[in-house]
Amino acid sequence: MLSKKYFIKTFGCQMNISDSERIAGILEKNKFKPTSEITKADLVVFNTCGIRQMAEDRAYGQIHNLRKNNPKIKIVLTGCLANREDVRKKLKNKVDIFCEIKNIETIIETLGFSVCHYLDIVPKYSLAHSVLVPIMTGCNNFCSYCVVPYARGREISRPATKIITEIKNLIKNGCKEITLLGQNVNSYNYKKIVFPELLQKIEKIPGNFWIRFISSHPKDFSSELIETIAKSKKICEQIHLPIQSGSNKILATMNRKYTAEHYLDLIKKIRIAFKKYKTDIPCSITSDIIVGFPGETKKDFLKTATLMKKAQYDLVYFGQFSPRPGTVAYKMKDNVSKGEKSQRENTLNEILKKTALSNNQKYLGKTLEVLIDSKKNGLYFGRTRSGKNVKIISTRKNLIGQFAKVKIIKANIWNLEGKTIK
Fold first, then answer.
1. Single residue among 206, 236, 266 that ends a domain in this structure
2. How many CB atoms lie within 10 A of CB 278?
3. Cα→Cα distances 252→144, 148, 332, Å
4. What is the pTM of this model?
5. Domain assignment present for 251
6. pLDDT per residue over 164-200, tens digit each?
């Protein structure tokens, strides 16, 4: 019989972090207690990510040697890798339960707990002041490089009433920031309540709190959504809008269902709307880009570089293409060398540094509301509504988890510096 100690190792995105919080919630409801040392756990859950080979390799490395130190340990593998036949074959003698996250009830049932849908589980939130709230899961888009539709299944939206109830309870308990999660949040649709309407309902919840959301698909980013965000008092001035490539040829091969021209037009509409309704607050635009996708020529790459200059991003998450088993792109010839991928990523990063610094300099001298996340070596660290990291000088105490007024005194490439004011 298990002695009730568990350890969860999470790889990948914020959606995986949220899933792990729900797994922790059901375990603790059933008398399990967390341990910070994986070797002392009786139950270890690996919540995996298959988007990049590096994360996959890290999971293998930890799983392979775990049972050597504790032969009685029970190992569960969930997330993106759980349903891949090659993974199951490789780890068949090392993992006790393979379970896709969409079937997390299987883990619960196997361990002898009462069964419920995992989105209905009360999570064990990692932070009290900043919480991830999934509003939907799965994806219908089938981008040629992406494992999500195979790992999570088709899109399923949570009932709006359950989302609202969860958020109301969080705000009552002092939460200051709600991040709505989904593989494609702006395709949320439950009984004819679509994403802009859901945002409007959350906006009406009493309390002083921020609303964020990730991730959005450009093909579903409607004019109604832009208007809703721009008019809102609680939705933060930060929009994550993945482009992936600036080449229409590559976008078509990726099955992204939009063009570079359409994307740049969206950016223009967003900035116009923000200038109309929020003249004093810059809008931060962030993105994802894959370099070295199969068939990406130097001409295609230069189109991405040109688009980056036009978009004037605040931050971009770059990823070098790595073929993922089960996807359409896995069968394509990976014809861009690793060295060339690294060089292209470095070139794009240099463009980003210039636009990021230029955007950050617009904050100099401004006094901003900042949510304080941590304190280290006498300095506080927090984030603005537009998602800027801020290093803060302050003599005030007990600011973690609270809003503070901060005057920005220095702008760097990746962060801002400031001091609190009364």
1. 236
2. 17
3. 9, 19, 14
4. 0.92
5. no
6. 999 999 999 999 999 999 999 999 999 999 999 999 9
